[in-house]
Design goal:
The protein is α+β, with helices and mostly antiparallel strands. About 20% of the residues lie in helices and about 30% in strands. Strands 1, 4, 7, 8, 9, 10 and 11 form a seven-stranded antiparallel beta sheet that branches. Strands 2-3 form a two-stranded antiparallel ribbon. Strands 5-6 form a two-stranded antiparallel sheet. A hairpin with a 5-residue loop joins strand 8 and strand 9. Helix 2 packs across helix 3.
Length: about 230
């Protein structure tokens, strides 16, 4: 009985006092599109190759117009891509009564790893005025036009507004713009989902307090090994 009480105390004490057990806040995050000022021009240049009128599917806005302090305010929710590996049997099956081993045969390709973002439908509609033209531009020029790609950074914060974790998605491009229905019925605010693929992604480093993490030795100058004692 005493052991059970001790284990219960350890559980409650850990989640109450130890920061490594503090529960994450899923709503403390922001997402940023990283690109130079030529992306919207490149989208419109590609569209101009297929449409005679300059206004046909012309991109008239861009994500940076919806940013405040590096955060796209109309991004309502984001779905981080999953990681998946496929395994198969290795060696002869049940040879001599021994079970076969396993071998990794395939890691999920990046076209199957989807980054999905839901955007609120505001008066200046970012889905209609940018992401849909961007997709059409890619349909015209294809991925051979590297100027139609950009990077996307996702950051998640703790309750002290320090970076917990995040990802940088490299060479991002949209693969699907979700359709939507309009109705005279009372509905929730309209959200439009855009799905992206990417070439690769990397983790962001968390904001570590003093005394943790790697130390940059260059900050301390050269080390005199002769004066180091055991």
């Amino acid at each position: 009985m005493a052991r059970i009480e001790s284990e219960t105390y350890d559980f409650l004490d850990g989640y109450s006092n130890s920061e490594k057990f503090f529960l994450a806040h899923p709503f403390l995050w922001k997402i940023t599109f990283d690109y130079d000022s030529s992306l919207i021009a490149n989208v419109n240049d590609a569209i101009g190759k297929a449409y005679s009128s300059q206004d046909d599917w012309r991109a008239i806005t861009e994500p940076k117009r919806f940013e405040k302090n590096g955060n796209i305010l109309v991004a309502r929710s984001v779905t981080v891509p999953n990681e998946n590996s496929q395994f198969d049997l290795a060696g002869a099956e049940n040879l001599g009564g021994f079970l076969p081993g396993y071998a990794l045969t395939k890691r999920m390709d990046f076209l199957s790893k989807n980054l999905a973002i839901n955007f609120l439908d505001t008066e200046d509609d970012i889905e209609h005025n940018f992401f849909r033209p961007w997709m059409i531009a890619l349909g015209i020029d294809g991925l051979i036009n590297r100027r139609l790609l950009c990077n996307v950074t996702l950051r998640q914060y703790n309750n002290k507004m320090k970076l917990r974790k995040g990802y940088k998605f490299i060479d991002v491009f949209p693969t699907n713009v979700e359709g939507y229905a309009l109705s005279y019925n009372d509905e929730a605010f309209q959200e439009k989902s855009v799905t992206f693929a990417f070439k690769e992604y990397k983790p962001l480093k968390e904001d570590l307090p003093a005394g943790r993490g790697d130390i940059d030795a260059s900050l301390f100058g050269p080390i005199d090994l002769a004066n180091i004692t055991a």
